[in-house]
From TrEMBL:
<protein>
    <recommendedName>
        <fullName>Tc1-like transposase DDE domain-containing protein</fullName>
    </recommendedName>
</protein>
<feature type="region of interest" description="Disordered">
    <location>
        <begin position="33"/>
        <end position="60"/>
    </location>
</feature>
<dbReference type="GO" id="GO:0003676">
    <property type="term" value="F:nucleic acid binding"/>
</dbReference>
<dbReference type="InterPro" id="IPR036397">
    <property type="entry name" value="RNaseH_sf"/>
</dbReference>
Length: 129
């Protein structure tokens, strides 16, 4: 117990967990397509990149960070693979694709791809997503 008037300091163990993104497409009767996006391997860092620059010192190297998470490129790839499967089934032609309101689902490349293939988009209400 902490004495009155002082802040409580709680120490917790920090664990680094690798995250995976799963993108799925389901129908009322079947799972159509599932894609797993594994994180890219961590780039090796060297000690030079960690140095702070002093004035005109150009010996330090700038390191570009690799973007994390699911990007529009991942979603577009998934949609392309999904349409290859959808186009094989005549029953699914002119169907609605129901998606949540994630910004990645509203990106212009995704919307364009869906409309060009002849499907329609319906977004879930924010209360349901």
């Amino acid at each position: 117990k902490t004495p009155a008037g002082t802040r409580t300091v709680v120490k917790t163990a920090k664990t680094k967990v690798t995250s995976h993104s799963v993108i799925g497409a389901i129908h009322s009767s079947v799972v159509h397509h599932v894609s797993l996006k594994k994180p890219s391997p961590k780039p090796e860092t060297n000690n030079i990149a960690k140095k702070k620059r002093k004035g005109d010192d150009t010996s330090a190297v700038d390191v570009k960070l690799v973007p994390k998470g699911t990007t529009t490129v991942h979603s577009t790839k998934f949609v392309n693979e999904f349409f290859d499967i959808m186009n094989e089934d005549e029953y699914l032609k002119d169907s609605y694709l129901v998606m949540d309101n994630a910004s990645i689902h509203k990106s212009k490349p995704i919307i364009r791809k869906i409309k060009v293939k002849g499907y329609r988009i319906m977004y879930l209400s924010p209360l349901l997503a």
